[in-house]
Amino acid sequence: MEEADLLNDLLNGDKASFNKLVLRYRTTVINTCYRFLLDKEDAEDVAQEVFIEVYRSIKSFRGESKLSTWIYRIAVSKSLDELKKRNRKKRISSFGKSMHIDFVTNLIVGGKQPDKALEEKENLKQVMKALDILPDSQRIAFTLSKIEGYTNTEIAEIMNTTTIAVESLVYRAKKKMTDELTLILKNNN
Asked: Rounded to an integer, what distance in angstroms lies between the CA atom of residue 163 and that of residue 159?
């Protein structure tokens, strides 16, 4: 069944078509979620949430992109939401390394002395605040680029935007993160 036929059946409320959609995209969605979450069970749970969202939102699908791209965007969004709920020490370390800000890595993995633990926990909270200041579009583009390693062209398709817009989003995200993390470093000294 072609994607257009499947979409048409879905829009007409055909429940069997939804089962076909799940079978067609299940592996791709789970793999997408896994690339963000790095845990099979979490990826499967989030994939289930993705298909629930697809089922609830199919009537609002505007057809401006392929159905598969729309589903992929939902998977990325749900995966990022899940990451917000987690302890992201490794992710933050990756941000620091990708931006060549060694102090971020040191804040997270440095000093194992018990008296430093409380201070490091507070520093981690500040780093998380810095990550949270990014607008969603910048955070998504930055994560896909710097952590997941997608090309700007691939990110543009995922985000339904242009390659130039992606370059701008990644640049602005990197600048905001650098500025905010530098400010944190100054305040901690």
From this structure: 10
Indicate if 123 and 155 belong to the same structural domain: yes
- Kindly report the average pLDDT of the chain as a whole number: 77
Task: Say yes or no: 129 and 66 in one domain.
Answer: no
Euclidean distance between CA atoms 134 and 81, whole angstroms: 14
CB 67 within 8 A of CB 54: no
pLDDT of residue 26: 94
Q: Contact, 153 vs 163, CB < 8 A?
A: yes
In this prediction, residue 108 carries a pLDDT of 45
Ramachandran region, residue 38 (left: φ > 0; alpha: ψ -120 to 50; beta: rest): left
Is the torsion defined by CA of 136, 104, 153, 83 positive or negative?
negative
Q: 0.85 exceeded by the pTM?
A: no
Residue 46 CA to residue 37 CA, distance in Å, equals: 9
